[in-house]
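Troubleshooting log. The previous run stalled partway through. Resubmitting the same two chains, unchanged.
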Amino acid sequence: MAGEDDALARAAAEAVARRSYGKLVAFLAARTRDVVGAEDALSDAFAVALADWPTRGIPKSPEAWLLAVARRKMIDADRRRRTGVDAAGELRLIAAELEAVATSAAPIPDDRLALMFACAHPAIDPGIRAPLILQTILGFDAATIASAFLVAPAAMGQRLVRAKHKIGQAGIPFRVPERADLRERLDAVLEAIYAAFAEGWSDPAGTEIRRRNLAEEAIWLGRLVASLLPDEPEALGLLALMLHAEARRNARRGTAGEYVPLTDQDPALWDTPMIEEAEALLFRASGMDAIGRYQLEAAVQSAHVVRRRTGRPDWAAIERLYDALSALTGSPVVAINRAIAVAETRDVAAGLAVLDALADDPRLAEYQPYWAARAGLLARTGAVDEADRAYQLAIGLESDPAVRGFLQERRAALGTRP
Amino acid sequence: MKYLLLIYGNEAAMEAASKADTERMHGAYNAYTEAMVKAGVIAGGERLRPSTSATTVRVANGKTSVLNGPYAETKEQLGGYYMIDVPDLDAALSWAARCPGASHGAIEVRAIWEM
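Second attempt completed without errors. Output:
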């Protein structure tokens, strides 16, 4: 029985963690300006929950329970660290406010947006803003963030800690900025939301608890920002992009869980209402006359979805859109996608030439999609040996077993092709 | 929170400025200081003599060394400071942007380590 209770308590704690982590961090950090302290206190509170809930039952309001414990942990930690009359006075004030919220039945205020804008403040190094939002709002660990951003985990961990200390020490405010600043800081916020979505997207079967609902969480954040800034076309563009991708979730795996690439997917499995919502958002954004990265990427999705009606993606449009994206971002990832489009609009050799031009970029040496794209195009030219080597690298770099299996099949099929 | 606004500017350019420009600058600083007083944010501030008047002292292994000149030779020199007390960094940054020196050199905004 104890084992069952343990599992139940663990599941309950994990469910609250998924739903409420960012909300609780934001609430505590916004009132103390101590992001590290808020995270530490909260992780202590989760540990206490795992010990306490199996024997005493899951509390009626797990969120308020966790907040109350985290609050005590934070005050204890502060007492140990600080002395002096001023500090004590300030602490009492914070404690009183936290107590009031923790014991009231009213929902805990949602400060996530304020925390996101603190993380995206101009005083924070631009490269760390998105990782910071992912860690504080969604509870990603440094290693996961590092892999999403192609950075060494140790370096990422250090930079995250430094940025959190800067928020407190420099007195960066926790609030949604005034309209003029809001637009300026929006880019960093959107980038972080999209990075979160991409992480959730990479686990379509939802087999990892840590990643499950991440795509939905990101869409939720996207909706929040889009509703706050209904006249900001890039906020609408990002939401459209995420909805387009999410609409294809069920088509991305076959009945046996095997990976199905976009061009082989059955359009009947795509989520039509979601696609229509995305198209409507994109249409609204396009009327605002300010093109940007997310609108362009959402438009690429539109050009793929055209296949529902015409049976074929609009490759010419896709190439044009990737041209524009490439000019805008200079991203090697965009260039890989452009190469795939060029292989369709012109010929495979032209696509390969685009990839060849990227070969010197050190960031791509360990980037699976580059080698997979290369292998696919080489296979079509009949360069079997070269294709085989590229597939081997792509397989070696892939972490998703479904995609790995797909690449292995393609590799095995190399010799049998005419 | 208290912040120190450190005003960095090119001393040589300031010394070479015309009398009219110098007077305009003084007028701008007076107005700026007055605005800070009115807003109730100012907690202190002074103009410094040129960095040529600086002397740098260091004690190493019990030996005191005294060197002529500022601690660091920079293209723009520390010329003065304001201490302000405002709610957060955004407020400090907006006061820093209003400082006449921000249009000529740079203002470094540093949070005070409150004990």
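Takeaways: Helices of chain B lie at 11-16, 19-39, 89-98. The two ends of chain B are 12 Å apart (CA to CA).
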